[in-house]
Amino acid sequence: MHIPTVTTDKIKLVTFAEALAAANTPSADYDIEKWLYAPNFYSEYRYILGTRGKNPLICIGINPSTAVPDDLDNTLKSVERIAKGNGFDSFIMFNVYAQRATSPDDMEKVCNPALHRENLEAFRYVLSISENPTVWAAWGAIIEKRKYLPDCVRDMLSVGEEYGANWVCAGAITKKGHPHHPLYLRKDEKIRPFDVAAYLEGLK
Question: How wide is the angle at C-alpha 33 spanned by C-alphas 30 and 38, nearest 5°?
Answer without folding.
Answer: 60
